[in-house]
Design goal:
155 residues; alpha+beta; 4-stranded antiparallel β-sheet; 3 helices
């Protein structure tokens, strides 16, 4: 009986350690964040402005975003915070979605903008040939775990 108890507690500690590693490794290996002044100056003159909110159906304690988002023909600028995690991607979506199921239905039609590697603001270049006005929503998605992080409708 003692052997079973010790095995169970050691496996539980191992699982907790692994989960904490998956959660905190992206924070420890993230590149240095961009300067707030640079983000603000790049956001000036944006075509669209919106905000990420923690109050979406698909957001929870570990998957959330908050702060302003500015979308121009050349850049997407986020000034705020995201819950840390691995393999985040920024997408543009034609219709507003706010959870995993809704996004998975339209993911094949969504436009990938790029990898999100920082969690306290980011600046991503819009790929050549992408018309941001053809979409209505900006969305952060975790590819590694198929998790919805946050979204915001901008038009």
């Amino acid at each position: 009986m003692r052997w079973i108890f010790l095995s169970a507690t050691h496996l539980a500690v191992l699982a907790i350690g692994f989960a904490l590693g998956v959660y905190f490794l992206p924070v420890l290996t993230a590149p240095e964040s961009l300067d707030d002044a640079m983000l603000a100056s790049t956001a000036e003159g944006a075509l669209f402005e919106t905000s990420f909110s923690r109050e979406l159906k698909g957001s929870d304690f570990l998957h959330w975003g908050e702060g302003s988002v500015s979308i121009s023909a050349q850049n997407v600028v986020h000034q705020g915070n995201l819950a840390p995690g691995p393999d985040y991607k920024l997408y543009l979506v034609k219709d507003f979605v706010e959870n995993e199921e809704e996004f998975l239905r339209v993911k094949s039609e969504a436009q990938v903008i790029g990898d999100v590697k920082t969690f306290d603001g980011f600046l991503l270049e819009v790929p050549a040939g992408v018309d941001v006005s053809a979409y209505s929503t900006v969305l952060v998605w975790c590819e590694a775990f198929n998790e919805f992080i946050t979204a915001a409708k901008y038009q």
